[in-house]
Amino acid sequence: MQPLVPGYTITGELSSNAAGSMWSAVRSHDERRLVVKIVRVPDMTRALAQAARTMDVVARLNNEHLVRQHDAVPLSDNTLALILDDVAGDRLVDVLGARSRLTPGEIVTAVAPLFAALADLHSACVVHGDLDPEKVLFSLDGKPLISDLGVARLRGPQRGTSDRALGFVAPELLADAEPTSASDVYAMAAIGWLCLTGAPPPGAPPPGAPRQVVTAVKPETFPRLVQVLASCLSADPAARPSAGVAAASVFDAASAEPVRLGSVSDPASDITRRVRASAVSAPTVTPPLTVKPRRLALVIGVAVLLVAVALGVGATWSLRRPPVAVQPVSARSTRPSTRPVTAASSNADPNTTARSITDVVTAPDSPRTATVGLLQALVDARALAYGARNPALLDLVYAPGATRALADRSNIATSLRNGATYLGLSFVVKDVVFLDGTPDTARIRATIVTPAYETGQADGRKVPHPEETVGPSVFTLDLAPDGWRILRLTTP
To answer: What 3-state class would DSSP assign to 221?
Structure first.
C-alpha cells in the first residue's frame, strides 16, 4: 500500500520485498525529487536516534560515494520513512544482470572509491553492516555509491541465512557476531569478486580460502586484483586489510576505466551512451611526469610558481570529488591568476617571508613556525596536479596510504580521458591554527575557500560555480623524507 509521508508526495513505487519498500517522491516545499525507503522498526524511539546519527555522519563526511539521507519520518504503522537522494543511474545488480562481469579496470573504478568511502565511515566509528550488490548504485555519470547505510541497525538483530548472505556476509557474522569494519571489508571484496568472476565467493570459507579462491580464477585475470580481493576475503577478520589499505591496493591493481552502464537489452540506453561518448572529443594524453623521490621537495617550489604564473587553475578542495570539465586543454585560458597562489594576505605568515617554499615544506619545524605557508604550499601542489593532469604530482601532496589521494587520481584519470580541465579554480587557506604534533606528525586546523570558478563543456559552454567554503577541517600531516605531506583530512 502506498505510504502517506508528511511533507512528501509519493509519485510511484520503485521496489518492494519482505524487508520493506521504496518509492519515488517529491518534497513539497521545493519539489525536489527524492526516494522514500520504508523500513519496519522494532523500537521507533531508538530507530529515530540511530537514523539521526547516520544522517549526521554522512553530512559531516560529505563523501560523494555515500547516498545522502535527508530525513527520517515516523509513520503510524510503526514504520520509518527514510528520505534519500534519488540516484538516477543504474544498480550494480542490473549492470551485472546484463553483462555478467566487469572488466578489471571497471572494477577499479567501481570498488576502489567504495572501499575509500568505507574507510571514511570506519574512521567515524560507523559500520555499514549489510553490504551486498543491491546496495551499490551508479549515478548517470558512472560514479559508484553505497546505499542503505544504517538500515540494518534500524531493523534490529537479524537471524538466519540465505543464498545471498552466504555469498556476501563475512563468515563470523553467520555465527551471530556483531558487524565490524572487517566484515564490511569482506562484503565489499565479495562484491568485487562477483564483478570479476560473475559469481560470489564461497560462503563461510575455511582458513585456507584465499589460496583456494585465487586458484579458481582464470589465468588471464589480473593477478594483483585477485590477490587484493582474496586477502579481503580471509576467514580470519584480523588478517583482512583495512578499508583504506584495500582502496589503495585495488586502485593500484589495474588501470581504471569507466564503468559501461545501461542494459545491453535496452537499445535506447546504448544509443544514448554512444551519443554522449561521441560528444566528448578524444583527449591528447600527456605522458606521465616521472618525479624522483629525492627531488619532490624541489618540485613543489616549481609547482607553485607554475600554478600561479602559467595555469591560473586549480582543483576545488572538499570532502567530495571535484567536478570534471570536458573542454580540451588547448582551449584553456593561460592568463595569469589574479590571485597569488600563496597564503591569503589576511592569513600571511611572517615566518615564511624569508624562507623558500622548498624550505617551508621540508623544515621539521614548519607546522609550528610556518603553518600557513606550509599548508598553502601543499594545497597549491594539489592544484598543480589537477592543472597539469598529472597524478604523479599528487606525491607532492599526500603521504603514503592517504585515502584522499584515491579520488584525486581517479579524477585526473577521468580528465585525461575526456580532455578535461578546470578554469579559474584556486585555493585560499584561512583561519589556520597549529593544534599539536610530534617530531614527524602534526595536526593543523584550517578552512579552505574555493573562490568562484567555471568548468568548460565540450560544446563551448562555461558553467559557473559559486564560491565554496569547507571547514574548519583538521589536516593531519606526516613528515616524509622529502618533506611534509597530508595523511588525513577530517571535519571535527
So the answer is: coil
User: How far out from the chain centre does Cα 458 lie?
Assistant: 25
The angle, 0 to 180 degrees and rounded to 10, between the axes of the packed helices 404-418 and 371-387 is 30
Report the distance separating Cα 429 and Cα 339, nearest Å. 13
- Whether 98 contacts 263, CB under 8 Å: yes
Rounded Cα–Cα distance for residues 304 and 341 (Å): 7
Instruction: Compute CA distances 62 → 52, 74, 217, whole Å.
Output: 15, 25, 37
CA 445 – CA 477 distance, rounded (Å) = 11
What CATH number does the domain containing 467 carry? 3.10.450
| Grid coordinates of 80 | 520509518
Q: Supply the pLDDT for residue 324.
A: 36
Domain check: are 437 and 301 in the same one? yes
Q: What is the pLDDT of residues 382-401, one digit of tens each?
A: 877 777 767 888 888 999 88
Q: Locate 260 and state its grid cell.
A: 559501461
Residue 75 near residue 4 (C-beta atoms within 8 A): yes
Say if pTM beats, i.e. exceeds, 0.85. Answer: no
d(CA 30, CA 240): 45
Residues 6+ apart with CB under 8 A from 41: 47, 78, 79, 80, 154, 155, 156
64, 85, 106: which is the final residue of a domain?
Answer: 85
Tell which of 225, 253, 281 closes a domain: 253
Q: Residue 384 — φ and ψ, nearest 5°? A: -65, -40
Total number of domains in the chain: 3
- Residue at grid coordinates 504503522: 77
- Phi first, then psi: what are they for 470, rounded to 5°? -120, 125
Q: Name the E strands within 86-222.
A: 90-91, 136-138, 144-146
